[in-house]
Amino acid sequence: MTAVTVLRIVLIAFTLVFVFFLVKDFLAHKEDFKGKHYIALGIIGLLTNFLDTLGIGSFATTQAGFKFTKSSPDETMPGTLNVGDTIPVVLEAVLFFGLIEIDAVILIVFIATAVIGAVIGAAIVSKWPVKLVRIGLGVALFILAIVLLCKLNGWGPFGAQGTITTLAELGIAKFIIGAIVNFILGALMTIGVGLYAPCMALVGALGMNISAAFPIMMGSCAFLMPAAGIKFIKEGKYDRKATLMLTIFGVIGVLVAYYIIKTLPLTVLTYVVICVMLFTAAMFFKDAFKAPAAK
């Protein structure tokens, strides 16, 4: 049995615990499934998880969808995002673990450090100014996207496009740096900074095959979300109807996007990643400099 198979089994088992709590809560609150907005919620779940699978992330786009359609209340939005996207994100991880042959040690350690970062690193990063974090990540993503573009086209002194997939090729120094950075990225998730695009940038900066970003970033988030989701379910602080639609149609969106990514040539996939990084950098700058909400 390979390490990737073990990861899949552990993740699925953990998710089944989450499903047990979710279904139990659904059955206890059947009255919450009355009303309208089912079509809008289904479209939101499909599109946002399609984009999530491409690496753009789903939280910001889902919030925008909820706001535009007035289909889910603001007060339960954090819980709805975490609970509703858990199963689609877990599906992403299970599928993408097999996208590319990557050293099991790299995959497991990078996932583990992100989870540890989210659990114990939150106390550290919660004291950081979110505005400066977003500006810093925006600048880093922009620079690394340009470097990745140069690597892809052989421009300047940046060298060839990354192809590393094993620990021997990566080297201990880069391995340790990558693990530390993914720890920080996991911690930053607790203050609302998405992990996907920065993780893509990390993989590219380490000279790894860009396809390796997908199992690493999706596995990192997938092991975090069931635990967070169970907490919101127990507290009842989520929109049950929206969660149901995000889950069902989110799974469909993931499957469609997975097929597209899986069949893309590596060069085209790298261009997609560059676009995602530039888009996310712009979003970081936008969020950093937006006016504070009126009190």
Fold and architecture overview:
- This protein is mainly α.
- The protein has one domain (3-289).
- Helix content is 75%, strand content 0%.
- The longest helix is centred in the N-terminal third of the chain and has 26 residues, at 3-28.
- It is globular.
- The mean pLDDT is 88.
Instruction: Please outline the major beta sheet.
Output: none
| Unreliably modeled segments | none
Helical amount: over 70%
Number of H/I helices: 14
Tell me the structural class: mainly alpha
End-to-end gap:
56 Å
Mean model confidence by pLDDT: 88
Strand content: under 5%
Overall spatial form: globular
Assembly context of the chains: single chain
The string of secondary-structure elements, in order, is: HHHHHHHHHHHHHH
Q: What is the radius of gyration?
A: 19 Å
Number of domains: 1
Task: Please report the total strand number as a whole number.
Answer: 0
Q: Nutshell version of this structure?
A:
The chain has 295 residues and is an all-alpha fold. It has helices at 3-28, 38-54, 59-69, 77-84, 86-96, 104-120, 122-125, 130-153, 167-170, 172-188, 196-205, 213-235, 240-263, 266-289. Helix 1 (3-28) packs parallel to helix 12 (213-235) and helix 5 packs antiparallel against helix 12 (213-235).
What descriptors fit this protein?
14 helices; 295 residues; mainly alpha
Write the layout of secondary structure elements.
Blueprint: H1 3-28, H2 38-54, H3 59-69, H4 77-84, H5 86-96, H6 104-120, H7 122-125, H8 130-153, H9 167-170, H10 172-188, H11 196-205, H12 213-235, H13 240-263, H14 266-289
Helix pairs in contact: 1-5, 1-12, 2-3, 2-13, 4-12, 4-13, 5-12, 5-13, 6-10, 6-12, 8-11, 8-14, 10-11, 11-12, 11-14
